[in-house]
Each structure stands twice: as C-alpha cells, then as structure tokens.
Prior knowledge:
- By secondary structure, chain A is mostly helical.
- The first copy, chain A, has helices at about 15-35, 40-45, 50-60, 60-80, 90-105, 110-120, 140-150, 160-180, 180-185, 195-215, 220-230.
- Chain A starts with 14 loop residues before the first helix and ends in a 13-residue tail after the last helix.
- The relative contact order of chain A is 0.09.
- Chain A binds a DNA duplex through helix 3.
Amino acid sequence: MPSLKKAPEATKRDAVKTRARILDAAQSLFCKHGLDGSTVEAIAKVAVVNKRMVYYYFGGKAELYLAVLEKTYANRRQHDSVLEMTEGDPEQCMRRLVRSSFRYCRNNPDYIKLLLAENLNGAKHLRRSKKVLNLHSPLLEKLGALLERGQQIGLFRAYTDPLQVYLTIASLCFFYHSNNATLSTVFGRDFSSSDSSIEREVHVEDVVLSYLKTRPSVEKKTRHQESAGHKPLEMIKHDNVN
Amino acid sequence: MPSLKKAPEATKRDAVKTRARILDAAQSLFCKHGLDGSTVEAIAKVAVVNKRMVYYYFGGKAELYLAVLEKTYANRRQHDSVLEMTEGDPEQCMRRLVRSSFRYCRNNPDYIKLLLAENLNGAKHLRRSKKVLNLHSPLLEKLGALLERGQQIGLFRAYTDPLQVYLTIASLCFFYHSNNATLSTVFGRDFSSSDSSIEREVHVEDVVLSYLKTRPSVEKKTRHQESAGHKPLEMIKHDNVN
DNA sequence: AGAAAACTTAACGTAAACGTTAATTAGGTT
DNA sequence: AACCTAATTAACGTTTACGTTAAGTTTTCT
C-alpha cells in the first residue's frame, strides 16, 4: 500500500478539512448576516480556527466570499444538470422542472440569501468570478429542446422563447422564497408554513403550464402591441419622492 | 394673515427641510450600500448636515432606516391606490395592473433594494413598524373584485385565489428587476436595457392573462394532486453541502 | 429686548473589525 | 535524529464608525 495514508485518528493538522470548515462557516454566516454583517472573527470562531487561517487559506474576506458564492452556484448547476428532460411526456417533464426549481429554492435558503445579497450590490463580487459566466447555458438548451418537443405534439404553444420561459419559472419559484419574510410581515401570516408552500407550488405549476398550453390568438397579439409597444416607459414614470 | 409665515428667503435654519434632506440622503445611501454599508457620517455629508443631526431628528441609525422603509412602503401603497379597477373591460384592467406593477418596479429601484435588504435580514426592521401591517389589503380586495367581474362575464377562470394571483404578479414583476444584476452577469447580457425590459413586460402580461383565461380541466386538477399532494417535500430535499 | 426653546456644531470616547507581524508547533523527509 | 516546511497561534497596529458631551448660534415668544 504505497500512498495510503494511515488512519488519522484525531489528527491535529489537516489543511483540507480546515479549509472546508472555514468555507462552511463562512457560508453559514454570510447567508445569515451578509458580507458586512459577518466578521472574520465570528467566522473563525464557528469554524473553530484561528482568525489568521482565513487569510492563510483565502487571502481575505472578499476572496472567501467569492469562494462561497462559486460553491453555491456550482451546487445549483449540479442540481439542474441532473434533471431528465429529453424523453417522456413534455407536460410531465415541465411540471417536474417547475417543481424541482421551486423546491430547490425552498430547501436551499442559503442560495436565496446569497443571490439577494449579490443583487443588492449590483453583482459586484459575482462579476469577478470566471467560473460563473454561463453564456451557453445547458439548462436553457435543455429547456428549449423540451419546449420544441411539446410544440411538435401540439401540446405547447409555438414561438416561445426559452429564456423568457426560464425567467418566468425562476421568478415564480424564487420570489416566493426570497421575499417570504416581508410578505409574511405585511400580510400578517406565515408563508413559510408547509401548507402555504404546497399551495403556492401547485399554483406556480398551474401558471406555467397554462401559459405554455395557451394558443395565443391574433387578437391577443394585437393587444400586446397596443399596450406595450406604443406607450414609452417614461410616460408613466413615478418617482420615489414625497 | 394670522398664521402665514413670512417668506424665508434663504433661511439658515429649517427643521423640516433638514429632516427631509437627511431622510432623502439616507434613502439614497441605504439603497446603494445597505444598512451596514452606509455610515451615518456619509449620510450627513450627502445631506449637507452635521452628523449630530441624525441623532437629533431620528434618534439613531436604526430608526432612520425604519423611517426610510416606511416612506418607501407608503409610496408604493399610494401608487397602488390610484389604480382604477372597478369598471371597464376586466382584461384591460388586469393588463393595466400588471403593467403598472412591472413599471413601478422598473422605475423605483430604491423600492426593490430596500425590500431585498429587508428580506436578507428576515424583515427585522420592517417588523418593528406599526404602519406597515396590511391585514386587510385594499389592493387585494380590489383585485378580488376584478377577478370576480372577469369570471362573471366568462372571461376569467373560476376559483382563483386573489392572494395567489397577487403573488404571481408580484413575482413576475419584482424578480426581473430585483435579480437583474445577477441575471445579466450570468447570462452575459444586459437585461436592464429598454428593449429587454419591454420584451419581458409583454411576456409577463401574457403569462398572467393566459393563466386567468385558462379554464382548468378536471384532468389537470387530478395531476396537481398527484404531483404535489402525495409526495412529501422532504423526499426530494437537497442540501447545500459539497 | 431678553429669555427660552429650537437647532447646529466641534470634538471626543469607545468599541469593533480588518489585516499583519512574528513566533510556535506538528508532520513528514532525508 | 535532525531538519524543513506546512499549518497554526498570539498579539498588535490602524482604521473606522457609532453615539455622546457640551458648548455655540438662531429663531421665537413674551
């Protein structure tokens, strides 16, 4: 047995594990308190590690944050890549996709939190990442193929833009979870309850499928042009001052 | 003229104006950099005011933040309350509502930012507000009445829950704007462009109306129960670790 | 005009957090 | 067994930001 390490039995020093502990602690705290809200000292404490280790392994707070971000995105992509969409009833495939997306948001609050934080700062950190750029999104391609399959059997409407459909699914799944706190506060009820979540999930599935299965009429297209095409956005601008 | 103040002509001291300047500066900075990211000193500087004034007028940073929050919510409510939905073609009313909501998000990035920030911290500050609780939302009631009107002329489907419809509209309008930064980064294109925005707006309108105008089949209802009712959420849980 | 109230300012105390310097320990290598 | 390097620690310097103290200046009211 040449390169087999002996059983570590409570090894005092382990670079990989230490690094991982820091990363996990950072994710947990960044998601709870944001980048500014989390201190390097607190992260170190949770990771049971000396503060200096953060700088040793990651260089600094910002780089650590980026590492957390990339890990989170990778997890999401991995989740998407597992989805089977190339065969079977297109409607069922689509429902599976929507459900999967909804539940991913439900089960991964960290993902939600990190995206919220990034959007608050204009994706300042995400933009520094080389790993995250996704010009040819595999998910978008799979979704496009699925839409095509559905169209060909006359189930889905024609002329759908996969990107728009993707955005719609993402909106419906993400928003409910990202804005759960304010929604619950304003409406004075608990949207995070299991019952509310299931009810919402059913509705979301319904909305997406209704859209895809609706054959757009010429009449409707005309209305669209009326409503959005002619009136410039500035005309109904409202500013935010008192 | 008993209680008519004389013309101030460049008054050196003006409590209301000073207070307002602080509030505006705070809103601007809080939205750009968040609560933690903004310093009282910076706010004072933008407001052209001594730092001490923040404490004099608002008591502290947290209270100032709450004041900004309440002002922003009030502005949104005021915007909603103006909408006419009680007469005219229900479809047109609904399209107007969706468009109005979409464009409000587009034109009020501060509103978006503050909501994002609140959701990041679990609505910690918003919950301290007495003004914001909205148990009997006037908008929800107006929306319910509109749905009813549409149903009665056979235009909209029956059994719609106004709350779910509201959430759907909010999702579709809010998400595109709240997540514009990360979406643009990941897909490598500019979703904030006027063209993208208009294209999205048309799609969103289309999605909402498709849902409302689709008559749910019995078959579909059965599928829903299959898909969401029986399988418990825990069964497809994914955790966020590597 | 004078006093009181409202408003404004400068300067300071204190605490917390980032990142660094430099010394120390453990593990594997020769 | 001595050694060398990777991993770890303690302690410190510096900056920054919150909030306060106490004193000054307008405005307003009598």
